[in-house]
Design brief:
globular, 7 strands, binds D-malate, Rossmann fold, alpha/beta, Alpha/beta hydrolase
């Protein structure tokens, strides 16, 4: 069966009796390329990076919703259903699934709707709480702006927020790369993503009784996903490791891919042990 979303496979082939696949879900408004550095540090694992609806090589959000017979309204539920359906089509019924920021919101929706898929979860630079009113209003404003003549210019200012002070001061190539990705972000993906995130509920309860190994990770310089938000998720989880990546902001996977790969590898090992 063909896969609904674009899945990018790395490392050894996925086998029934082989290691659990590690599935990585990207941040807004990027795509699977943001995991390149992390994947390079995990050559021994079968890794699948997934492009969300409207991003990278995945079909438009409207086409994804139609294929799943879901309402056309943007939602992370549709994104989670699309991830689960795509993995199912690829023969993956159980995996360690990690997501960064928007990818983490999708992991939370998977925990609510597709729990049997999850052998372990990674919640990176994300939060389980819904937006406050002001943040929601800002998302809807950015969505409209992206649909206007400026397109991706609506998200250009994000480069200042999503990278930490250390990266801005010492890693000019990372700043350039992220600026380039933001400039290329597709307008319909931006609009869909902002509206989907604006509509997401608080999903902390999805973590209670999850019963699989979990990782909560954040960059010490992250100004988007706070330490208290990370702690709130960790408090809801039974089997959790909390990792703080020093000298990194919200885009830990891009700012310090080696540290993120090490944390994901440890999560994978715990999940294998439990499997
Ligand atoms: C992301 O990195 O995915 C975004 O910062 C998420 C958000 O806007 O909440």
């Amino acid at each position: 069966m063909s896969e609904l979303l674009a899945l990018h496979r790395h490392g050894p082939a996925i086998e029934q009796d082989g290691p659990l696949p590690l599935v990585l879900l990207h941040a807004f408004p990027l795509d699977s390329r943001m995991w390149e550095g992390v994947v390079a540090h995990l050559p021994e694992l079968p890794v699948v990076t997934v492009d969300a609806p409207g991003f990278g090589s995945s079909p438009s959000p409207a086409a994804v919703a139609e294929a799943l017979a879901r309402p056309a309204d943007p939602s992370l539920e549709t994104c989670a259903d699309a991830v689960a359906a795509s993995l199912h089509s690829a023969g993956i019924g159980r995996a360690v699934v990690a997501g960064l920021s928007m990818g983490g919101y999708t992991v939370l929706a998977l925990a609510e709707r597709h729990r049997s898929l999850l052998a372990g979860v990674g919640l990176l630079d994300t939060k389980a709480e819904a937006d406050a009113d002001a943040a929601r209003a800002n998302r809807l404003r950015v969505a409209e702006e992206a649909e206007g003549p400026g397109g991706a210019a609506a998200v250009a200012p994000m480069v200042d927020q999503v990278l930490g002070a250390t990266t801005h001061a010492e890693r000019p190539a990372v700043v350039d790369r992220v600026r380039g990705w933001l400039a290329e972000a597709p307008a319909d993906g931006i609009a869909w993503g902002q509206r989907a995130m604006a509509g997401r509920p608080t999903r902390r309860s999805a973590l209670e009784d999850l019963g699989v190994p979990a990782l909560v990770l954040r960059g010490a310089e992250d100004e988007t996903a706070s330490q208290s938000a990370a702690q709130s998720m960790a408090d809801a989880l039974r089997d959790v490791e909390v990792v703080v990546v020093p000298r990194a902001g919200h885009m830990t996977a891009v700012e310090d891919p080696e540290a993120v790969a090490a944390a994901l590898s440890a999560l994978h090992e715990r999940a294998e042990h439990r499997h």
